[in-house]
Amino acid sequence: MKKLIFSILAILVFYSTQAQITISKDNNDIKLSALPYYSYGKGLGITSPDSIFKLNIRFRMQNRITYLLEEGEEPAYEAAIRRLRLRFDGYVGDPKIIYVIQLSFAPRDVGPLQEGENLNIIRDAIVFYRPNKHWNIGFGQTKLPGNRQRINSSGALQLTDRSINNAVFNIDRDFGLQVYYLNEKNNQFSYNIKTAISTGEGRNWTKEPDNGLAYTARVEIFPLGAFKDNGTLFEGDIKREESPKFMFSGVYHFNNDARKTAGTIGNELFEQRDMQSLLFDAIAKYNGWAFEGAFMMRSANNPITMNPEEASDVEYVFTGHGFDAQLSYLFLNNYEIIGRFSHQNPHSDIELLAPKTNQYTLGITKYIWEHALKLQAEVTNTHFQYFDHSKINDWYIRFQVEIGI
């Protein structure tokens, strides 16, 4: 199976290098489908007089305050810099060869510094070869072609965070080879095929050498043509589609001998496990209305692992399924109202360790400069139901400012 996949990717790379197209050095906007970014502006750019290289610098910041009402706990406030990112992109020598670097500095992005662990500031470090408008070939570390909401930049979300199912079931950044074939057309049936072979251990893994790989394939279908201005890369219909547009997609992901509870993210397991994921998306936009639906599931044999020195200490693969439904409307004054419902159902193998969860969110966003400068407020209610039928009901109210270039 591995030899077959490597052979297919080798053939794709060979044929992509045979295609020739002239790409203007003055119009290389670094808009690659493989990149998990949405940018309204183009940042601060520097291009050499002879056009041998281009450097573009961007940043974005999310500042938030949250009022927590958790059952059984005293009310509390949480104020934080949720995200602080710095991004560099451009080309060197040839605009077909593109580099992307993204660094993160907020505490929750980097994580706690532990002895013997990496300082986890590198999010993306990848080089792409783009021989023509159809092919993207990347080598390095970036997001895998997973669920649509995960691929989208966190700065292009309608609500302040992704869904609870994206947090649990999705695949994230990894190091490897990615090959995309893109065939998007305006007002015509279109499709994209995106593939990746990666380490399966997530970003910045430097521990013992890897003995298993991860394989990912994603197919996107646009029955009525592509969205306006790369509209799949950001949530909400801020471009106000003049005719209905739809996208349907499916992802298969297999992680061989995964070391973490969610494959590329999570705590380390005490024993390695094989895991499979299926991810499905649907997006619709028209005249200010936007709908997103998602279904996610993960399976693994014998998902619970135990510490051989302490049987009560366990780590487990989160198996099960979940779905999200998100609906919004953007008014002409650039205020948007958003509602989201998420349901999460752990598999029976782990139901003693993880509750069934329903989450309801209502949000209001004011776009000042599209997603690059916006004010967001939301209220969220989360219901947890445990195996013994006990229930917990939590609330939070949040305000966030997003700014970037």
Short description:
This protein is mainly β. The chain is built from four helices and 19 strands.
Counting H and I runs of at least 4 residues, what is the number of helices?
A: 4
Our Rg estimate from Cα atoms comes to 21 Å
Q: How does CATH name the architecture?
A: Beta Barrel
Shape annotation: globular
Main sheet record:
16 strands, antiparallel, barrel
The total tally of domains equals 1
Percentage of residues in DSSP E strands: over 45%
Question: What order do the strands of the largest sheet run in, or round the barrel if closed?
Answer: 2-3-4-5-6-7-8-9-10-11-12-15-16-17-18-19
Annotate the secondary structure layout.
Layout: H1 2-18, E1 44-47, E2 53-69, E3 76-92, E4 97-104, H2 107-110, E5 122-129, E6 135-143, H3 148-151, H4 164-169, E7 173-183, E8 190-198, E9 214-222, E10 245-260, E11 268-286, E12 289-299, E13 304-307, E14 310-316, E15 320-330, E16 335-346, E17 356-369, E18 373-385, E19 391-404
Antiparallel strand pairs: 1-2, 2-3, 2-19, 3-4, 4-5, 5-6, 6-7, 7-8, 8-9, 9-10, 10-11, 11-12, 12-15, 13-14, 15-16, 16-17, 17-18, 18-19
